[in-house]
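lol forgot to send this yesterday, sorry. struct tokens for the thing we talked abt
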């Protein structure tokens, strides 16, 4: 694989950088060969490390003439693929410079940064951009959208299948799914009945849960029982169990959950578009109604 770094030099955003790479490799195979891409742009080595608390790292020089990517040897291969993409972004985006020295060392929480907070410092912004690059590179938007459009059921079975096809973790596939699916969606990650974190698309309302808070007891996620690998049906639940924003909290959401190992659950939430359309029509009617009072 041949990729010219010179042609990428002026592409500063994660999305345009991915587009530049895809332009040079128009027949990019799926799963995307992220290690081959890294080596084509002067990453000389991808090394497994056992550093506690770190998911990956990048060692380079000030000019970024070449670099070495580090991955956590304890992580799954699919998580390592995302880490390689993440560190590759630090290497290729010109504005990404380490806080000190010439080395990035990134934690698990860095790999989960999504930029939901309006106030981001420089370090957080770099991690958010690195995650955007990795997700875009491993799951190119045009191809991923095509796969979504081909499906008649945008559910967890589809999401899990896309994780297999693109050779990514369920977490990475869930983020991309929520970003690109037309149906307003969110995914919730929980462990042993407690909230870990959530990701959602732009049209889905905020989920007001904090880490380690109990999963709402009226939700399907809390009520569904089964064994590892079991997948619930998609079911309607009252919206107030998950959101507190009108009109969504007064309507029903669609919910489905997947049982993973060690007490982890992956939950998909979707707005019931018929319910929301009905709510919007009611709001429009209320706004358009002008009461008339009899004169005395």
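and heres what i got for the seq, position by position
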């Amino acid at each position: 694989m041949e990729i010219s770094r010179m042609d990428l030099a002026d592409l500063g955003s994660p999305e345009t950088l991915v587009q530049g790479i895809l332009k040079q490799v128009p027949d990019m195979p799926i799963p995307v060969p992220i290690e081959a891409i890294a080596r084509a742009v002067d990453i000389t080595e991808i090394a497994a490390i056992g550093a506690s608390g770190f998911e990956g790292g990048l060692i380079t020089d000030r000019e970024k003439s070449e670099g070495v990517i580090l991955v956590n040897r304890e992580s799954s291969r699919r998580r390592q693929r995302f880490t390689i993409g993440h560190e590759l972004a630090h290497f290729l985006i010109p504005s990404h410079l380490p806080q000190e020295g010439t080395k990035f060392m990134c934690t698990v929480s860095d790999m989960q940064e999504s930029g939901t907070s309006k106030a981001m410092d420089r370090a957080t912004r770099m991690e958010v951009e690195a995650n955007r690059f990795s997700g875009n590179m491993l799951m190119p938007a045009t191809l991923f959208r095509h796969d979504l459009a081909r499906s008649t059921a945008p559910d967890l079975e589809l999401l899990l299948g896309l994780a297999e096809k693109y050779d990514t973790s369920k977490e990475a596939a869930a983020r991309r799914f929520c970003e690109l699916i037309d149906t307003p969606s969110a995914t919730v990650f929980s462990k042993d009945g407690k909230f870990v974190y959530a990701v959602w698309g732009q049209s889905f309302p905020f989920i007001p849960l904090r880490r380690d808070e109990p999963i709402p007891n009226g939700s399907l996620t809390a009520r569904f029982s089964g064994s590892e690998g079991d997948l619930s049906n998609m079911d309607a639940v009252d919206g107030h169990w998950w959101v507190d924003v009108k009109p969504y909290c007064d309507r029903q959401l669609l919910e489905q959950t997947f049982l993973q190992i060690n007490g982890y659950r992956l939950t998909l939430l979707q707005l019931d578009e018929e319910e929301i359309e009905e709510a919007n029509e009611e709001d429009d009617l209320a706004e358009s109604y002008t009461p008339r009072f009899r004169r005395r």
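The CA atoms of residues 45 and 68 lie 5 Å apart. anyway ping me if u want another try
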